[in-house]
C-alpha cells in the first residue's frame, strides 16, 4: 500500500477542522507536520487533494471524491478494532433466542442490544410446537420469551414480563360471528383452530374445548385458516389488530366474560447454568427490566 492510515486520518481531520493549522492543533503537532503528511499522501496517490492557490487550501474535485473513500476506509478500520476488542473481551460471537410471542413486544430491547453488541450475531427461533422451554433446557437457545406455562423444569428459571390479551376470533361469515355473545357451548359446537403449543396448556384453556380441533404450529398458519372460514381460534390480539380493524376477522364476545379480556402472562426463561457470556448476561438483564403490555378496550395497561 502506497499510503498509511495515519495519512488518511490527517487528510480527513484537515477537512473537518477547516485548515491545516486547526488540524495540527487538534492532534498536538506542528502545521508543517500536517502539511508534509498531506503532501506525501498526494504524492503517493498521484493527485492533488487541496487547491493551495488561496490562503486557506480547499478541496479539489479529486479531493472531494477521495475524501469519501478515505472516510469509508477509516470507518472500516474502526469497525475492525471494535470487533477485535469484542473478541478479546470473550463476547459471544452469536446468541440464540426462542420467541413465541408477537415479536414487536421485544423489538425495542433488541434494538438496544444491536447497538451495545454490534458484532454479536442474533438468531431468533420460533420453535416447532412452541416448546420454548425445551429449547432453552437443551441449550439450543440462551433465552426464551413465551406465554406462561403451568410449570417449568427445575433446571430453568423464569420471570413474568407482563401480560398480553388473547382474542377469540373467526371469519365474518362464520356462524359464531352472527351471535351478540358467545357461550362456551356455542364454541364447543364449532371447529377450534388451535396453536399446537397451547391447545390445552394456557390458563383457563380447559373451557375452550371443542368436538373438532385442528392444530397448527404457527400463528400465521392459524390466521390463514381463520381467514378461510375453517373455524374459530384464539390469537394474540397484538398479532391481529389490523385484521380486526379492517373487518377481516371478528372478535367473539364471550358470554362468561362480557367486560374483561383474557390476559395471559409472558415469561422470560433462562437456564440456571453458570458461565453465560457478557452479551447473554446483558440481554437477560435488559429484558428482565422491560415490561410487556398492551392497552385494553378501556385504554388501561395490561401490566401494572
TrEMBL record:
Keyword DNA-binding: yes
Entry's Gene Ontology molecular function annotations: DNA-binding transcription factor activity; transcription cis-regulatory region binding
Presence of the UniProt keyword DNA-binding in the record: yes
Pfam families the UniProt entry points to: HTH_1, LysR_substrate
Domain HTH lysR-type stretches: 3-60
Family of this protein: Belongs to the LysR transcriptional regulatory family.
Protein's recorded name: LysR family transcriptional regulator
